[in-house]
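Hi Y.,

Following your request, here is the sequence exactly as I used it, all 127 residues.
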Amino acid sequence: MNTLAIRKSTKKDRIIYWTATLLIVLFDSVGALGFNTPLAIEGTRHLGFPDYFRVELSLGKILGGILLVLPMIPARIKEWAYVGFGISMISAIIANLVVDGPAQASLPFVCLMVLIVSYVYYHRTRK
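Below is the corresponding structure, written out as tokens. Let me know if you'd prefer a different format.
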């Protein structure tokens, strides 16, 4: 009976991990594929960032998303992908707070919370 409870918990943990991770990848990494659209160009300019930063950030997000979803990637590399996404989201919160106010910072904040869930459950599924 106890073993069954452990298996259910592990399955639940994996579902939570993959759901949160796929949400991050779909929102941030797949969204970064549109880095050359007029909306992305204007958004970067509006926040006061140089144009090269938009390209650099988008490539990092695409690479980070690939690193998070591929199971054969070593844990240390995945940790750095989480760090990169975390820095990106915290920076987005700050930039949006400064330029546009709290309402615009809410989406990056929610994404940061989903990233934290993914990170916590990544470690739970590894045990």
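The helical segments are 2-30, 38-46, 51-69, 75-99, 102-126.

Thanks again,
Q.
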